[in-house]
Amino acid sequence: MRFNNIPKVFLVSILLAFTLFPSLAARRPEGQYRVMTCNIRITGLEADDPYPERVWENRKDLCIKTIRDEKPDFFCLQEVIYDSYNYFVEKFGKDYYYYGFVGPEMDPWTDGYHFIGKNVIFFRKDRFDWVSAGCYWLSETPTLAGSVSWETNRARHCNWVRIRDRKTGREMRLVNTHLDHKSDAARREQIKMIMAECALYQADMPQILCGDFNAGIKSAPIQYIRTQDGWKEMYEDIHGPAEAGFTCHSFLGEGHKPGRRIDFIFYRGPLRTLDAEIMKNHVGNMYPSDHYFVKADFKLE
Fold first, then answer.
1. In what order do the strands lie in the sheet with 171-178?
2. Would you say the pTM of this structure is higher than 0.85?
């Protein structure tokens, strides 16, 4: 949904305040699913931002509504910290299981922001059973929370869940990550680690890898994924391999200078992509995040 020429942030807030979040609709056809990847931006960075529409408290309902309107079967978030996590749990916790924020494997600290934005995964309670889940850190000590290697600028991690469709009995694995934003050398090692871990599973296990890779389609990390047996990307299945343009728009939308796509939905295993979209939702000059979200529909073959 798009509304233009609404420059005042309070008009946006009023509009959202009177918008009821829709409940989940009936299930999609058997074996068909919708996945989303959403970098929602670290909150609390707006203290010196002169633009109120970028402040989490003002845009959080638009962020929630943008996701909930799509009724995803599962969605992956990046850059989640305490206030955003609590708000997502409040709005989605009734309908979705969620994993990837709380626990000693997730953080050496129990409060405060220590430059670790979590990669949280949500999946529908009415459709899936929780089989297992885990977290590993993208470092040479993957079981040590907050550990760093390869001169990464910040500690980075990968969360995964294994779920079972209650109706079909089919299992699949959702993997969510966020690679380093400065060091290409670190990104190369981080993606190698993720690919090696995913390769532990049999080839016919459906796996979906979502995230902010901080790397474009021609970069070494993305090219490395393409060299691994069976890995493809959902948006490219539908729209082809050409550069689709930026997904990190810095709250500027189409006014952002030309750039590259860094948010992807990769997959491996017996599934077929049905549709995919880079979501450019906004209300006036307010956006859900400084990233466009990406969604895709697919079917297990």
1. 128-137, 157-165, 171-178, 207-212, 263-268, 232-233
2. yes
pLDDT digits (tens, 9 = 90+) for 167-189: 999 999 999 999 999 999 999 99
pLDDT of 200 reads 97
What whole-number distance in Å separates Cα of residue 272 and Cα of residue 35?
Answer: 13
Pair 156, 190: CB distance under 8 Å: yes
Is the pLDDT assigned to residue 27 strictly greater than 80?
A: no
Does an H or E element contain 234, and which?
helix 234-239
E-state strands within the chain: 2-3, 32-39, 74-80, 96-99, 118-124, 128-137, 157-165, 171-178, 207-212, 232-233, 263-268, 271-279, 282-283, 293-300
pLDDT over 90 (residue 10): no
**Rounded (10°) CA dihedral 217, 221, 225, 226:** 40
Task: Look at the block and give the residue holding tokens 């670190």.
Answer: 186
174 phi/psi in degrees, rounded to 5: -110, 130
Give the span between the Cα atoms of 193 and 106, in whole angstroms.
Answer: 18
How is residue 227 annotated by DSSP?
Answer: H
> What's the number of CA atoms in the CB half-sphere (13 Å) around residue 224?
17
Q: What kind and span of H or E run contains 120?
A: strand 118-124
